TrEMBL record:
UniProt KW ATP-binding keyword: no
Membrane topology of the entry: Multi-pass membrane protein
Spans through the membrane: 62-82, 114-139, 151-171, 177-197, 221-241, 270-291, 303-327, 333-359, 371-392, 398-419
Taxonomic classification: Bacteria, Pseudomonadati, Pseudomonadota, Alphaproteobacteria, Caulobacterales
Protein name: Amino acid/peptide transporter
Domain of life: Bacteria
Region: Disordered, residue numbers: 426-447
GO biological process, one term: oligopeptide transport
Biased composition (Basic and acidic residues): 435-447
GO molecular function: peptide transmembrane transporter activity
NCBIfam families in UniProt: yjdL_sub1_fam
Length: 447
């Protein structure tokens, strides 16, 4: 508590909060409330479309896929606008305000599509602009700088954990619009904290001047082709992974016995809190495990890790296929919980590792383009997930889940096949990574 923090603004140092600059607490709480609003609305979205708006399941899945896809697409444009013209603070305030408007518009059925557009557009300004302010809270040689991203990531998952419990319960038990209103209130709370805490945040950086991309290395084409191949594999992977908020939510409602004891039924939206909760539990275990493997010289390469992760997600869906095919019309909720354990373990092997790989292997002068490529892969993957989800009502659940397991297994095979090429591409001259940037990207941009 007695430490002093240094910011890039040149202002007098402020007393630290909990051993970190007070600005980190402001960013932490802002991000926590933003994720609360985002995941709170998302927990209700498929149910609202099918139960309140009476959309056919195939149409609801396509709308869900398009919405989540554009949530990943808009940050590509929003980040450029923030860097070139708006500045990060104005981008956060503008984006958060547009998102809050979108959440409140969800209370009016005729405004459904404009509401989704507002949330996706606002997220484009907000998502890339908030975490990019973390580095400016520290002097370049401050050892707390890397650990700060771990603290910030707790906010990401804390908001994601609380959202289905609060917004989901309100929407499911008392009315959908109460849940959407709670999400909007959460976004306003985050914006208020950000604005009131502005004096603790770093000053805006000068706008970058237009300049050439710099010299190219001999291995740049090889790196580009590698990242393209990895990106395509991630698109396929997300086609299965993103079913968790789409068709899996429908199965939790229709095909799972959620009863516990006498008379209590677990709300279907609560299961969407399992993923962020398990991230809390599993991340330290995996980090410790990888550190031990590194000391022994046996840590897998990034592409092998990603292949293992995609294979884990395939195993989770194949497990559900067996359960859905053998348990009759109603499976025990314990199987759904077990699915999330296996799925989250696989997710931690592929998503943060993949974004770190993109940041590290970006050709000279193309770091932003490489990160944009990761978001493009997420965008295309969510579109694919929506298209695949449209088959849910036409297939038996066991067949559908087996198909999703096959999709994830294809991605795992492609990633494993690329692993030797990745080692060669790195040897051909990958640029040195900024470890702080890489760590931050890995921990803050996972949705």
């Amino acid at each position: 508590m007695g430490e002093r923090s240094v910011t890039s603004s040149g202002a007098p140092p402020a007393r630290a909060w909990f051993g970190q600059p007070p600005g980190l607490t402001i960013l932490f709480l802002t991000e926590m409330w933003e994720k609360f609003s985002f995941y709170g609305m998302r927990a209700l979205l498929v149910y609202y479309m099918t139960k309140q708006l009476l959309m056919p399941q195939a149409q609801a899945s396509m709308v869900y896929g398009l919405y989540t896809a554009f949530v990943y697409f808009t940050p590509i444009l929003g980040g450029v606008i923030a860097d070139r013209w708006l500045g990060r603070r104005k981008a956060v305030i503008l984006g958060g305000s547009i998102m809050a408007l979108g959440h409140f518009l969800m209370a009016f059925e005729p405004a459904f599509y404009p509401a989704l557009a507002c949330i996706a557009l606002g997220n484009g300004f907000f998502l890339p602009s908030l975490p990019s302010q973390i580095g400016g809270l520290y002097a370049p040689d401050d050892p707390r700088r890397v650990r700060a991203y771990n603290v910030y990531y707790v906010g990401v998952n804390l908001g994601g954990f609380l959202a289905p419990l609060v917004c989901g319960t309100l929407g499911e038990l008392y009315g959908w619009h109460y849940g959407f209103a709670a999400a909007g209130i959460g976004m306003v709370a985050g914006l208020t904290i950000y604005i009131l805490g502005g004096r603790h945040l770093p000053a805006e950086e000068p706008r970058p001047a237009c300049r050439g991309d710099g010299p190219r290395r001999r291995g740049d084409l090889r790196l580009f082709l590698l990242l393209l191949g990895v990106g395509l594999a991630v698109v396929v992977f997300r086609g299965a992974y993103e079913q968790t908020g789409n068709t899996l939510a429908l199965w939790a409602d229709q095909g799972v016995d959620r009863g516990v004891g006498e008379g209590f039924v677990i709300p279907m939206t609560w299961f969407q809190s399992l993923n962020p909760l398990l991230v809390f539990v599993l991340t330290p275990l995996f980090l410790a495990h990888w550190a031990r493997l590194e000391r022994w010289g046996r840590e897998p390469s990034p592409l092998v890790k990603m292949s293992i992760g995609s294979g884990g997600v395939a195993a989770a869906f194949l497990m559900l296929a067996v359960v859905a095919g053998t348990s009759g019309p109603s499976a025990s909720w314990l199987w759904l919980a077990a699915f999330f354990v296996v799925l989250t373990a696989g997710e931690l092997y592929i998503l943060p590792v993949g974004l770190g790989l993109f940041a590290r292997l970006a050709p000279a002068g193309m770091a932003a383009t490489a990160v944009a490529g990761w978001f493009l892969a997420a965008f295309a993957g969510n579109l694919l997930a929506g298209a695949l989800g449209a088959f849910w009502s036409r297939l038996d659940p066991a067949v559908f889940f087996a198909g999703m397991g096959g999709v994830a297994a294809i991605a795992a095979a492609v990633l494993l096949a690329l692993a030797p090429w990745a080692r060669g591409a790195e040897d051909a001259g990958a640029p040195p990574a900024d470890e702080d940037l890489k760590s931050g990207l890995e921990r803050t941009f996972r949705r």
